[in-house]
Amino acid sequence: MNQDIINKYGKVCAVIGGQWGDEGKGKLIDILAQEYDYVVRATGGANAGHTVYIPDPVEAGKTKKFVFHLMPSGVLYPNVTGIIGNGCVVHVPTFFEEVAFLKENNIEVEGRVFISDRAHLVFEYHKLIDRTLEERKGKTKVGTTGRGIGPAYTDKIARSGIRANDLLDFESFVTKIRTNVEMLKKMYDIEFDVEAEIEYYRSVLSQIRPYIKDTVYMVNKAREEGKTLLMEGANGTLLDIDHGTYPYVTSSNATIGGIVSGSGVSALKIDSAIGIMKAYMTRVGAGPFPSELEDAVGEKLRTTGNEFGSTTGRPRRCGWFDAVASRYAVMINGLTAINLTKLDVLDEFDTIKIVTKYLYQGKELDSIPASLDILDQVEVEYEELPGWKQQIDKARKISDLPENAQKYVKRIEELLGCPVDFVGVGVSREQLASK
Fold it and tell me: What residues act catalytically?
């Protein structure tokens, strides 16, 4: 174990998205995971893709890409136990697709990946409802991935959800799913073959049983025994159902609160919280985006940064780094450090801008307003910094970066009031500069 990591970030460390998701959480989690015993994913479902690049075990000099939608990102290490927590919503077919993909790459997960018995399940009818409701919204579409996440969380809150634990009493499960489908058919005017869904779960029942555990007890017991926990957030702070740009948000808590409720680990046991933020901003789907660049600069960020969704392939909207929104994320999560990702995407820019203020009707706003009408109308004030115009992919220490790159990082630290401990300088596992 690298005691420097444990000494600095503690035995329970949370990694949280600090923007609108897609910040690159998977990479840091993958890097830190080798030092931790458990990686615990607490919220979200198969709508959140975490991408990890590792050295290809077969072809020297090449990288291998892994995209996880449900699996905790740390499963690539054989010593790590992966937990899909009670705050997640689990689409079982997607879970088994990822198990199969890992097996194809000689990574076994049996006996070291577990699904909380309290986690709710996502069914095909949730996907159907998701698509149906999105189509009915017309111009007011949220931009959902169509993976059924929102409807699954709706059932959870309505107390009609079906949990992983229900599969362990299969006859009761059958009764519950039939009752739900009959009710949902009437509510949404849809047709759905519930018997085909039942038969699928009957066919995989023996396979899924070993994965279902009381993970709340498991992770708390592990902590009592001195084991270390890396808590994996999904989506991002500005997509949080309570604190994000509602209603253009995800259906769960993507902030530190979701880590606590979605894992069963007390907030008092969390030692540190690392926020992941891109060196610029991106957003997928609809909703306000104060620093958005709908011009050639925005297109350059998109193409250079390969800003296309890992789950949907949709092009991401791009803009300059927003210190107002990011400072809000620091405040909400109590962030103790930041990983600034994809700094290398800015290598070829002559000048780089940072949003430093939101102005509304001539007055500066203290933070992100709840009103989207106001957020849509804010004027942003920028601070412009010189670029560095050289490749930074070989830097392994922040002090190795060109002077102007270091100044950019330092200015972000000053504006956010939080140290930048890591800087991403490329997609691969080793392309990370630290203090």
Answer: 22, 50
